[in-house]
Amino acid sequence: MDKPVVLVVSADATVKPEDVIGRVRKLPATDATVALTDGLTGHSYHIRTKYYETDVVFCGWPGGKELGELPETILKQLEGILIYFDARDRDFLKRLPEYAAFVTEADIEFGILLCAELQEEPDQGITYREAKKFCNVLDVIELDPSGETTAATAADEDDGEAAGVDELIQAMNNFIWSNVDMHRKVVGGAGEGAGCGAEPEEKEEEETTEGAGEEDPEDERRIEEELMGFEKLLTQVMQFRPNTSSWTRNERLAYAQEFAEFFDELIGEED
C-alpha cells in the first residue's frame, strides 16, 4: 500500500467514522474500497487541484480501540487524522491532550477536529477557543454551522472561503501529500499555433542542429538560475513545518498557496 492514509476517529457514539468519510467522498461506502491490514477497510479518495492530483485512503478507526493499537503498517502510511467529536460533551476536552500528543508523536502534519457546531458558552458545551487550544497540531472545522455562523459562512463564501464539509475538502486539497503528481505548465497550449502544421517542430530541430556542440553562455546562466530556484524551493520545504508550527490552519494555507504559486512559476519558466 503506497497511498497516504487519513485516519478517521469518532469520539461521538452517534456518529461513525464511515459517516464522516461518506460526507467527504460523496460515494456509497461500498465504492472504491481498499483492503487494509488487520481486517480494516479503507476508502479511496481522489484529490485533484490546479497544482496536483493524488489518491489518499480514509481508514475508519473503531471508537473502542486506542490509537496506540494502530497497526504498524498503517502507521507508516499515516499522513492525516480527522477526529469527530460532540461539541456538547465537555468530557471530550479531557481526551484532547491525548489526541494532540498522538499527532505530534506520529509526526502527522494534517490533523483536524470535526464537529457539527461549536457552542457559544462553556455551560452549553465546547467553545471555539477551547477547541483551538491545540491549534498548532489540530485545527477545527464545523461541518454543520447554523444560526449566526451561517450568516458568517455566507459572507465567507462570497469572499471565496469555503465552510462546512466544503471547508474540509478545501483543506485536504490545499495539503501537499507525499505521493502528489504535480501538474506541469504547458507553454503555448494545445490551442495555440493551430494550423501551423509541423513548423514549430522543424524550427526546434533546426535550432538544435545549429547549436550542437556549442555551449551557450545564456543557457548556462538560465540553468544556474533554475538550480538556485530549486535550492530555494527545497529550503522552504524543509523549513515549512518549523516556521509554521504555531500558526493557525488558515495562516498555513495562505503560506502554502504562496509556496504552490512559486513552484508553479518555477517549473513554468522552462522552455
Report what the structure shows:
By secondary structure, the chain is an alpha/beta fold. It folds into two domains: 161 residues, Rossmann fold (3-Layer(aba) Sandwich), CATH 3.40.50; 50 residues. Helices cover 42% and strands 17% of the residues. It contains nine helices and eight strands. Strands 1, 2, 3, 4, 5, 6, 7 and 8 form an eight-stranded mixed beta sheet that branches. Strand 3 and strand 4 form a beta hairpin. Helix 8 packs antiparallel against helix 9. The chain is globular and about 70 Å long. It starts with a strand and ends with a helix. About 13% of the residues have low confidence. InterPro entries: Alpha/Gamma-adaptin-bd_p34.
CATH class of the largest domain: Alpha Beta
In CATH, the topology of the largest domain is named Rossmann fold
Q: Report the biggest beta sheet as strand number plus sense, adding barrel if it closes.
A: 8 strands, mixed
How many β-strand stretches? 8
N-to-C SSE series? EHEEEHEHEHEHHEHHH
- What is the overall shape? globular
Return residue spans where pLDDT drops below 50 for at least 5 consecutive residues. 149-158, 186-209
Count of separate structural domains:
2
Query: Beta-sheet strand percentage?
Result: 15-25%
What's the architecture of the largest domain in CATH terms? 3-Layer(aba) Sandwich
Rg computed from alpha carbons, rounded to a whole number of angstroms: 23 Å
**Average pLDDT, all residues:** 78
How many individual helices? 9
